[in-house]
Every structure is written in C-alpha cells, then in structure tokens.
User: Fold DNA-binding transcriptional regulator, FrmR family from Granulicella pectinivorans.
Amino acid sequence: MSHFDKEKAKLVARIKRIRGQVDSIERSLSTGDDCADVLMLLANVRGGINSLMGEVLEDHIRLHMMTPEKNGLPSQELAEDLIDLVRAYLK
Assistant:
C-alpha cells in the first residue's frame, strides 16, 4: 500500500468514526436523552469534522501548492505559517 493509500485509509476511518458519532446523536435525540449529553455529542462531532478538515487542507497545501514545478507559489515557510493558522482556527 502506498503512502497516499495509507493516508486515504486513515481519512476514511475518521469519517466512519464521525458517522458513528452522528448515529449516536440520532439515538440520543430519539430516546430523549438530556440536552447536555446531546450537546456533548454534537461538540465531539464538530471536533472530528474540524480535525478532518484541517488534515485534508494541510495535505492539499503540502501536496498541491508546494510542488516545485508550479511558479509563483509561497515559500515553504509561508506554507507552514498558513498550516499553523488554519489549525489554530479549526480548534
């Protein structure tokens, strides 16, 4: 399995975990669980989505924006700064 295939498998596994969390929210709402419990489940899903979005965005910057054959792209240092900013925003 190539590096990209391993990374893809990790991302798919994360999506499956998020799907399970969403299913848990549905069950909680259906059974009338406490609002605080539902809010905690919602926060967990939001965290999972934000983390996944950060990972995909980071991969896009590293793999597509930082290719040597492209002209006019930012330096590696600027890209690292962008990644740090996005990660901070998504927390």
About this structure: The helical segments are 3-31, 35-65, 76-90. The radius of gyration is 17 Å. Residues 3-90 form a domain with the Methane Monooxygenase Hydroxylase; Chain G, domain 1 fold (CATH 1.20.58.1000). The mean pLDDT is 84.
